[in-house]
Design a protein that fits this description.
The chain is an all-alpha fold. It has helices at about 5-10, 15-40, 40-50, 50-75, 80-105, 110-135. The protein is elongated and about 45 Å long.
């Protein structure tokens, strides 16, 4: 990804700030998703065609994960290992989402679309975070 595109998306030309902003955006989106799953697993489960217990547990996991990513984003210089771990976790989430959709889940149409959109968004975060980390690493 070009430096100009990254800078435009992050609204900064400072590579370390780009990393922090993409981590923070990931934390906000993931945290909101997790909190929604915790707060309304029944209605969301019915709408998405996913078991409410699974949604609740995923919500707890996502909320905790988002807190960890937010903590990393709050560091003046997030560690490269920490950022790489987030990138790897995001890529794993993407793959597992698609595998679950194909092999295990039987969601509604809305649930299938949501799962694919969520997987794509998480993959996008991984790409942005990795590109920003590469720009910030001499």
């Amino acid at each position: 990804m070009s430096q100009a595109l990254l800078a435009g998306l992050a609204r900064t030309t400072q590579p370390r700030s780009m990393v922090r902003r993409f981590l923070a955006l990931d934390a906000v989106v993931t945290g909101a998703n997790g909190l929604a799953y915790v707060a309304a697993p029944g209605p969301l489960g019915e709408f998405l065609g996913v078991d409410r217990g699974l949604l609740f547990e995923l919500g707890l996991f996502l909320t905790a994960y988002a807190a960890g990513v937010a903590w990393l984003a709050s560091r003046p210089r997030p560690s490269a290992l920490g950022v790489k771990t987030v990138v790897d976790a995001n890529l794993l989430w993407t793959v597992l989402s698609v595998v679950a959709l194909v092999a295990w889940l039987e969601p509604t149409t809305a649930g299938a679309v949501w799962t694919l959109l969520q997987a794509g968004t998480v993959a996008g975060f991984a790409g942005l975070q990795w590109s920003a980390l590469r720009a910030a690493t001499p």
